[in-house]
Amino acid sequence: MAPQGGASSGPKTPAGEPQVGKELAKVQYDPFLPVERKLIAWSLGLGVVLLALLIWISYSFFPG
Predict the structure, then answer these.
(1) 26 to each of 13, 14, 18, 31, 49, how far by Cα in Å?
(2) Of 39, 62, 40, which Cα lies nearest the Cα of 54?
(3) Domain locations along the chain
(4) Torsion of CA 18, 21, 23, 27, to 10 degrees
């Protein structure tokens, strides 16, 4: 038996499934809130400090 749905060559998407490109084009630009900027800054700062601490501990206690 031949498969149903015709002989199209591209991938099929169901009629109700949203397409990502179209949905992303609809999204409006939303700037960060001040509290979000602070959270990002604190997270990056904490990450850098903890990485430096890890490197210092590594060189101090486990010399290569």
Answers:
(1) 20, 20, 12, 16, 39
(2) 62
(3) 33-64
(4) 170
What was the pLDDT predicted at 37?
Answer: 97
pLDDT tens by residue, 49-58: 999 999 999 9
CB distance 13 to 19 below 8 Å: yes
- The pLDDT tens digits for 8-43 are 555 556 666 778 888 888 888 889 999 999 999 999
Task: Extract the tokens encoding 45.
Answer: 């700062």
The whole-angstrom separation of Cα 17 and Cα 23 is 11
